[in-house]
Amino acid sequence: MYTSFEKLNKSSKVWVFQSSSEIPASSLQNISNDSKDFLEQLNSHGRSLKSSFKLIYNHFLIIAVENSKNEISGCSIDTITRFVKNLELKYNLSFFDRLIVKYKKNNENIKSASLNEFKTICKTKMIDDDITVFNNLVKNIDELENIWETNIHNSWLKRYLDDA
Q1: Cα–Cα distance between 114 and 118 in angstroms, integer?
Q2: Hey, which residues does 54 pair with through a beta bridge?
């Protein structure tokens, strides 16, 4: 059962799917429609799951499922993964490349770099240590709101600054 993101409780489980490239503006509405339709039907062992999504910064698809009444099953999680893989094919995107780092300085546009490129950027001081990175391993809405966007010093990526 699809609902607005704001109506989900803060402990709702989240999955952050980061697109390797910026999601084209021309695809955003279609992805929104597809996501809403998908979540309207999402269930766990026949029980409807209260769920929602957000497209953030044209780079991130966030799917959230409230698990206070009906627990999400492994099969339902697999269904979410298949749905996102289908979005990749339909819109020529890549949401599962874990070697892409997204970062930004202040309120500038989000930049993308492969992990190796990011290491080089850090070593050559092409960025300073006052950048924001994204912790895509957040578990719930509360973490999404509070620690998803974080200074590089609060993330595992800080080691590349230390190596510089």
Answers
A1: 6
A2: 62
